[in-house]
Design brief:
The complex is a heterodimer of chains A (about 100) and B (about 240). Chain A is mainly alpha-helical and about 100 residues long. Chain A contains five helices and two strands, in the order αααββαα. Chain A has a two-stranded antiparallel sheet with strand order 1-2. The relative contact order of chain A is 0.07. Chain B is globular and about 65 Å long. Chain B folds into two domains: about 160 residues, no CATH class; about 55 residues. Classes of the chains: A mainly alpha (about 100), B mainly alpha (about 240). Chains A and B meet through α1, α2, α3, α4 and α5 of A and α2, α3, α4, α5 and α6 of B.
Chain lengths: ~100, ~240
């Protein structure tokens, strides 16, 4: 197996996937429903990344207090809701996590 | 005009900054794992600019470790990065008027971490002249840190202790981006559906859980929006 060939093909395919619809947009008619659907990509994708990071510990659902990331994540959600500020949200979540880990609740 | 480009470029870098904190340890772990899997330092380093996709690079080192055939690795990279097609679709309307070389450059830089701040920027501020420089700033900042953290991991191994939990900066930044964007019921429903589905589908390999969960959220959001609009129309008549 030639590792350089594998990397080159992997890189080309990755680029092709990312470029695909950016390139094709405008070359075809896009139905109204599809345009609407695009607006739900950000909340859907970001939540699909966030939830497992917060609710799962070692691949299993964990709602206990020992799941520090769950509590810190919830605090960050509240901070984001109130402050609407990126820095405040991250700071609140990180400090909460550090404190929880330090005091080992 | 130049100052406008500057403004957006630096705004993109600033928006990317918290994500860089979370990405750095991942880059180091990738670099260290690639060396452990038997890649040379040059091969390990060069995979970062050539493939430029964190999760795919992780899985590639794992497959190399297991002596998987080349075509299996290439196919796996394709499946792992399939979710980027959603990002491509989502950004496409905002990049439509750019020359092809810009579309190509921004596509090359289109990772999870470049997508998130860029799409939030576009959806919040609408399309403005020169605002693609925002995405360039965010994407290049991530690119530079990914190269640097890869090199650090190759040279030093994973020197940052797990207990620092720097990786938690990634979901936190995504929380900071998504929560203010949840302004309508369909958007909230899309987020909760996708999040819940991601938990259920977590065990699926190759990031397919993320892709399926995102699609579920998008479908629920769109259906609800159509229903709400439909109800309003029939209520008015």
């Amino acid at each position: 197996m030639n590792i350089w060939l594998v990397m080159a093909l992997g890189g080309l395919i990755t680029f092709g996937i990312r470029f695909s619809l950016i390139y094709l947009f405008g070359k075809f008619h896009i139905p109204e429903t599809m345009r609407k659907a695009l607006h739900y990509v950000p909340p859907a994708v970001l939540s699909a990344i966030i939830f497992p990071e917060v609710f799962l510990r070692e691949g299993a659902l964990s709602f206990s207090l020992e799941n520090h990331r769950l509590l810190a994540g919830l605090i960050a959600i509240v901070a984001a809701w109130i402050s609407r500020n990126t820095f405040t949200t991250i700071l609140a979540g990180m400090i909460a996590l550090f404190l929880l880990q330090f005091f080992g609740v | 005009m130049t100052s406008l480009k500057n403004k957006y470029f630096w705004a993109g870098i600033r928006a990317e900054f918290p994500l860089l904190i979370g990405v750095f340890p991942f880059g180091m772990i990738y670099g260290a794992l690639a060396i452990e899997a038997g890649l040379s330092a040059v091969e390990a380093q060069m995979m970062s600019p050539i493939v430029f996709a964190g999760s795919a690079q992780f899985i590639t080192t794992q497959l190399i470790n297991n002596v998987a055939p080349g075509f299996v690795i290439v196919l796996t990279i394709a499946v792992v990065n399939l979710r980027h097609m959603l990002y491509s679709a989502s950004l496409a309307p905002y990049l439509a008027s750019l020359p092809t070389r810009w579309k190509a450059l921004l596509s090359y830089l289109l990772t999870d971490e470049a997508y998130a701040p860029s799409i939030i920027h576009y959806e919040t501020n609408e399309l403005q002249p020169e605002s693609h420089w925002f995405m360039l700033g965010a994407g290049l900042a991530l690119w530079a840190i990914w190269m640097f953290s890869t090199a650090t991991g190759i040279l030093l191994g994973t020197a940052i202790p797990d207990s620092w939990s720097l990786d938690f900066a990634l979901p936190l930044t995504f929380i900071a981006m998504v929560v203010p964007a949840l302004k309508t019921r369909p958007a909230i429903a899309a987020a909760l559906t996708a999040g819940g589905a991601a938990l259920v589908a977590y065990a699926l390999p190759y990031k397919l859980g993320l892709l399926i969960a995102a699609l579920a959220g998008i479908i629920v959001g769109t259906l609800l929006e159509n229903k709400t609009v439909g109800a309003r129309l029939s209520g008015d008549s």
